[in-house]
Amino acid sequence: MVGTGLSSAIGQDLLRCLADDWEVLAIGRTPFLGMHRHWLRADLRQPFDDWGHSLTNWLMQSPLQVSAFVHLAGVAYSAPCESTTAHEWQSMLSVNLTAAFQLGQCLSPYLEEAAAIVLVGSVDAWHASQDGPAAAYGASKAGLAGLVRHWAQEWGSRGIRVNGVAPGALAVGMGPAEEAVGQAIASRIALGRLGQADEVAAVIAFLLSPGASYISGAWIPVDGGLNVAY
Ligand SMILES: NC(=O)c1ccc[n+]([C@@H]2O[C@H](COP(=O)([O-])OP(=O)(O)OC[C@H]3O[C@@H](n4cnc5c(N)ncnc54)[C@H](OP(=O)(O)O)[C@@H]3O)[C@@H](O)[C@H]2O)c1
Q1: I need a surface site. Which of 2, 12, 44, 102 has the fewest CB within 10 A?
Q2: CATH 3.40.50.720: does it fit domain 2-222?
Q3: How far is the CA of 211 from the centre of ligand 1 (A)?
């Protein structure tokens, strides 16, 4: 598997869901080492040319084809449109969306038949939060929605499945930092609580598994029933 964002809580839980003998190439800034573990240092805000050649070299030298690609890396700045800086906009587009596209483009020739791709988006692609405007973040995640459907069609004849997972508000990572905000969001969730990293990881692992062999082009919300009531 080739993955970004594997240092996050969701990424760590995803690795626990996978069999120990999966060869994993982690792309990111946090070192990632161990048995069957490989690391390609990359700051995904930087142009693909800065880190993409190392990936291509690694892929050309690897005896294995790529069976899975998971794009979990994400950056979020929550700010009103008027005060979102060009740097924030560019960082979110680069890490959340452009890196996914460029990685898919680079990995495509190395994907095995029946490979699985999972892009991790957010409910913010479809909904605006009452607790803090995040138009730029939502736009970057909405771009992933397009990639999933178009790649599913483009690569479906090769047996490659492409799906998306859209977490709601989690109690970890970039979930709400303030308890009051978390409680306000939880009051709008059918299950009445924020989500956990392993609850997202389990869905990603399922989409990578043979059990999901007839699911492609789909987005699965993992949000505990956010905003199902009116
Ligand atoms: N937590 C939530 O409530 C929530 C809700 C909806 C969606 N999500 C999505 O779930 C995913 C994981 O989120 P999280 O909350 O677990 O976030 P997190 O703990 O902040 O982790 C972010 C991940 O993104 C990677 N990343 C960030 N900037 C990067 C850069 N410039 N270059 C390379 N990698 C970079 C980090 O890897 P390095 O350590 O290598 O930099 C890290 O693994 C994200 O896509 C996020 O949008 C989360």
Answers
A1: 12
A2: yes
A3: 26
